[in-house]
Amino acid sequence: MTDKTTMRILSGIQPSGVLHIGNYFGMMRPAIALQAEGEALYFIADYHALTSVRDPEVLRTNSRRVALDFLACGLDPQRATLFRHSDVPQVTELAWILSTVAPMGLLERAHSYKDKLARGMAATVGLFNYPVLMAADILIYDSDVVPVGKDQKQHIEMTRDLAVKMNETFGQIFKLPEARIQPATETVPGIDGQKMSKSYGNNIDIFGDEKETRKRVMSIVTDSTPIEAPKDLERSTIVELYSLFASKDELANMCDRFKKGGTGYGDFKKELFQKLWEYFTPMRKRREEILRDKSYIDNVLARGAERANEIAHEVMQRVRKAVGLR
Ligand code: TYM
Q1: pLDDT tens for residues 55-65?
Q2: In sequence order, what are the residues at sequence separation of 6 or more whose Cβ sits closer than 8 angstroms to the Cβ of residue 112?
Q3: How much is the pLDDT for 6?
Q4: Are residues 30 and 161 in the same domain?
Q5: What is the pLDDT of residues 81-136, one digit of tens each?
Q6: Whose CA is nearest to atom 28 of ligand 1?
Q7: 134 touches ligand 1 (CB under 6 Å)
Q8: How many domains does the chain have?
Q9: Is 58 helix (H, G, I), strand (E, B) or coil?
Q10: Same structural domain for residues 104 and 221?
């Protein structure tokens, strides 16, 4: 292994459903690119998913599937550590310690909590406390950089606030992590033009089957501009999604035809589907290979848990000593 003392990179993804292209471009692709730049730790946030998933079998299946899909997309277990959140139970201890300094007002301002309530989720203590557990996730590995989509920005700011609060109260314990958000892909739109999200039902999955994926792409919401008329490029979900997959020239070509008129939305959607499908073809192949090796995922996760525990143990010793637990 190379010397990885420089930068520690950490991120997590909830196994609350199947991964979609918003997850891919917002977090997975940047995270995969960063695995060459330091020690990367990526985890399947199953403790977090308990706030919404109530079926144990579904949670277990989704967790494995997230591991499979992340590996298929290019996470390299020789370079990065992949593990299950719940394989490092010490993180819940740190969350408790952080919660004792976390101001109620800070948590009450969390957008994500308010959004979830607005969508009808029950106001549980776990849901409210989610940002504290997320802060523990990050701080327990002395993380420097956290690649995420824009929707997680506030959570990282809260993590920094909690780290500062702990440092002011107990002396220097934690590093202050930074969010790494890619401006071009910070919020990938779903088929209705809103942020793509499993819970909004507007997702296009990374490894959906061909028929379903085509159907999702063909259902992208557009205005009713007739075929021959020029079309509005601004806020076009088709163009925005196409820009994720196409080369500069291909994108410029689509934009020209949008402005000129004479091509219907249906044709643009077919081009988008084609590009999207081709983009993920090598990853679908890799996924098949991984699936053929029955013990591969378990081995990766077991090794990941070992490394993650090593770091978490070290940091928790520092924390316990600082707060007076031992
Ligand atoms: P989650 O599981 O909702 O999403 C995983 C990652 O995907 C990003 N993402 C998007 N990016 C751009 N456009 C979209 N439409 C889009 N949808 C999702 C998210 O920003 C995220 O980076 N709380 C986190 C999981 C988590 C975590 C952590 C992350 C738990 N602990 C510690 C970082 C560090 C979440 O629910 O992500």
Answers
A1: 999 999 999 99
A2: 130, 131, 151, 154, 155
A3: 83
A4: yes
A5: 999 999 999 999 999 999 999 999 999 999 999 999 999 999 999 999 999 999 99
A6: 12
A7: yes
A8: 2
A9: helix
A10: no
Take atom 27 of ligand 1 and give the residue whose Cα is closest.
12
Q: Is the CB of 52 under 6 A from ligand 1?
A: no
Q: Whose CA is nearest to atom 5 of ligand 1?
A: 13
Structure tokens at 103: 């101001």
Angle at 205 between CA 218 and CA 266, to 5 degrees: 10
Cβ atoms < 10 Å from Cβ of 12: 24
87 CB less than 6 Å from ligand 1? no
Q: Is the CB of 189 under 6 A from ligand 1?
A: no
Q: Under 8 Å CB-to-CB from 203, ≥6 apart: which residues?
A: 17, 18, 20, 21, 22, 190, 191, 196, 197, 216
| pTM (global) more than 0.85 | yes
Catalytic annotation, residues: 116, 195, 198
CATH number, domain with residue 17: 3.40.50.620
